[in-house]
Design goal:
Chains A, B: InterPro entries: NAD(P)-bd_dom_sf. Chains A, B: This is (S)-8-amino-7-oxononanoate synthase BioU. Chains A, B: It comes from Natrialba asiatica (strain ATCC 700177 / DSM 12278 / JCM 9576 / FERM P-10747 / NBRC 102637 / 172P1). The structure is a homodimer of 342-residue chains. The first copy, chain A, has twelve helices and 13 strands. Chain A has 342 residues and is an alpha/beta fold. The first copy, chain A, has two domains: 193 residues, 3-Layer(aba) Sandwich (Rossmann fold), CATH 3.40.50; 123 residues, no CATH class. In chain A, the strands form two sheets. The first copy, chain A, has an eight-stranded mixed sheet, with helices on both faces. The radius of gyration of chain A is 19 Å and the shape is globular. Chain A starts with a strand and ends in a 9-residue tail after the last strand. The relative contact order of chain A is 0.16. About 4% of the residues of chain A have low confidence. At the A-B interface, helix 1, helix 7, strand 12 and helix 12 of A face helix 1, helix 7, strand 12 and helix 12 of B.
Chain lengths: 342, 342
């Protein structure tokens, strides 16, 4: 595969780790990265080490409203010697997008429409390339689907939900389903130990809390950091989730594997330890053509971090998406419709 | 996806079960099937139930040289009311191939060059469509690759090794690898219980025996059925295999996952029981970007038969291949380069 030049929108935990992982993969050149106050663009390839060092701690922790942590003399990306301060970071990257094959959207997604609206800006600029996100929420997939014609018109290939779950685990479920002629249940159960990674993943933790009983995205969005901490403390740092709204359901239905209602997602988040509190597992239960009922199982090693399981697949799906795009396939794709390339 | 019209070459265990499984899947219409003496073609769709009933026991058991079991008054496929006797079954299907989107090659593959040479006949006829096989042997992939330009020229998309292993398990390994930045080992271990399916799968068993110490494909090919039985009896019907030549190795290397030498395939075949003698498992061991070493694991339920795990994925990969073909992607692809569609 020819070299892929890609941009990252957002340099929180996911954006920064994706840049880092890309340095281990063949054929990927990061050419642009931004946060709300800065943009770094180098079509010959960014110096990822320098950018990561400069942006250490660059996390929107309060819902993306006000605060970006600082290192160096400027805030966030702008602290990098490769970057410029800007009030229009996404527009700056769109302006250079003729030379960008793919864009990973790693922005905190507090409003449902946020990522779809980012996509709209690329459509307005008539961007012909790939957009990839690692979103979790089922309802956003429908919002993207409403834009499928617009994407097709400008030659845009959008791969949604391409992280760990949905993403890696959705793809695993689609594969594991192939033994069966009818799938009755897909059960996804994840474990995340996030002690040292907590600061880098506050947005993710906040979004997870929205899945607890008595909370939703709206209430969580208006909670201050202190209130979030209080919820975590009330659970002694270990939060268990059931029946989460994770887009694995609609993405597996799109791929024809099963009904969305047959998919359940839950898990345990432990912010007091880096050890996983439970093993991340996908169980696909179905009936074979010869009438047997069985459950195929995929387990991720407890020593693979959430970051490893989000960013590797995100880049794998990005590579697949570029291939689809180069073959002229535009529109919206889920992970189960694409196998990530290594 | 639009309807896919497909043909099956060979109505042994794999060909017949693939026809059967296709009746459970959406969007697949079997329009042609053949064995050495008969061909059935119906562009409106074959009556699979009738064809299967007519061809029950239609297995080449001696290396494909002389004998086809009989039911009804004629041999094999020709016993079907939908079929005609023929001396040129593959040519007959090639003659109709303008109306065939994909061809599953489910022929016994006793010579390494056999499947590549079948492909050559489709190239000579300038077939623009999909060929899928479920071959196992690594060295055949290279022979297909030598033909990649010829495939590209006539617009042919060839997906090789698209059964259980290679196939389902190769794809699972490629997905499980996404957690890592470096993969050090892929270990594939399969269990097959084949008591009731033994008659239908003599070709597969024969090929497996070629992997035992002191045997190879040439010696096995010249062995009579009695000699094969004697080998099985000497092992009390339970044969254990190590370091098999399975194309998972070269297919994972093609996809950039690891070196072929890092892939090992082994397993246990029990022809005395339908219970699997060991659980089919894929273990992918690697190092994450954050320096952890781990093993992701995929396990197939012991109640999923070999047939279920070959034919479901074969049809899934066939669907993926048709999609690639329709997008204008021609040449040779391995499973890890395509996610099977359900």
């Amino acid at each position: 595969m020819d070299e892929i030049r890609f941009a990252v929108l957002g340099t929180g935990g996911i954006g920064r780790r994706t840049l880092e992982v890309s340095t281990y993969r063949d054929g990927l050149t990061p050419v642009a990265a931004c946060d709300r106050h800065g943009v770094a663009i180098d079509h010959d390839g960014l110096d990822v080490d320098e950018l990561l060092a400069a942006t250490e701690g660059n996390i929107a922790s309060d819902g993306g409203v006000t605060r970006v942590k600082e290192t160096g003399e400027q805030k966030g990306v702008a602290a990098s010697t490769q970057a410029d301060q800007t009030a229009t970071p996404i527009d700056d990257i769109i302006a250079e997008s003729d030379a960008v094959d793919a864009v990973l959207i790693a922005l905190p997604n507090f409003e449902h429409e946020f990522i779809p609206k980012v996509a709209d800006r690329f459509v307005e600029a008539d961007y012909s390339g790939v957009l990839v996100d690692v979103l979790k929420r089922s309802r956003v997939i429908g919002m993207l689907d409403e834009r499928a014609d617009a994407f097709a018109e400008c030659g845009l290939t959008f791969v949604c939900g391409a992280g760990a779950t949905p993403g890696l685990l959705t793809g695993a479920a689609a594969l594991a389903a192939q033994s069966f002629v009818e799938v009755e249940a897909v059960d996804i159960w994840w474990g995340v130990g996030l002690k040292s990674g907590y600061e880098d993943n506050r947005g993710t933790v906040r979004e997870d809390i929205a899945h607890l009983p008595d909370y939703d995205l709206e209430t969580v969005r208006e909670m201050g950091d202190g209130e979030i901490e209080a919820v975590i403390d009330a659970h002694d740092g270990v939060l268990e989730f059931h029946d989460m709204e994770h887009a694995d359901d609609v993405l597996l239905e799109r791929a024809g594997i099963c009904e969305a209602a047959d998919v359940t997602v839950g898990g345990v988040l432990d912010v007091t330890s880096d050890e996983k509190p439970t093993t991340t597992t996908v169980r696909v239960t179905g009936t074979t053509f010869d009438g047997e009922r069985g459950t195929n199982t995929v387990e991720l090693d407890d020593d693979t971090s959430m970051a490893a399981n989000v960013n590797g697949p995100a880049l794998g799906y990005l590579k697949s998406a570029v291939r689809r795009h180069r073959a002229g396939e535009y529109g919206v794709f889920g992970p189960a419709e694409l196998l990530p390339r290594f």
